[in-house]
Design brief:
There is one protein chain. This protein is mainly α. It contains 3 helices and no strands. The chain has one domain. It starts with 6 loop residues before the first helix and ends with a helix. The mean pLDDT is 89.
Length: 90
């Protein structure tokens, strides 16, 4: 295989597994998932940053920060789950 390898392919090599080459449709689907995930993360950051800007109570601000981190982590995990589903489809 020539050219750059995806993070998924590199991880599979390190784990001793064999990564099946992705089809163009799978690559496009994964790119679309990444694009949507980045947009959702940006939207979430803006929403929570607006809440933080108007919050004066340190306890509430801490809760907002934690909720922001949890929400972004969930968005990213959902995207990874979707990408894994695309990779497994043949």
């Amino acid at each position: 295989m020539s050219g750059m390898k995806s993070a998924y392919e590199l991880a599979m090599e390190r784990l001793g597994g064999k990564a099946n080459p992705l089809t163009n449709a799978q690559k496009a689907a994964i790119a679309e998932i990444d694009s949507k995930m980045k947009a959702k993360v940006a939207e979430t950051e803006i929403m929570f940053d607006q809440q933080l800007a108007s919050e004066t109570d340190p306890a509430k601000a801490g809760f907002i920060r934690q909720t922001k981190q949890n929400t972004i982590a969930k968005i990213r995990q959902d995207a990874e789950d979707q990408k894994e589903s695309v990779r497994c489809d043949e």
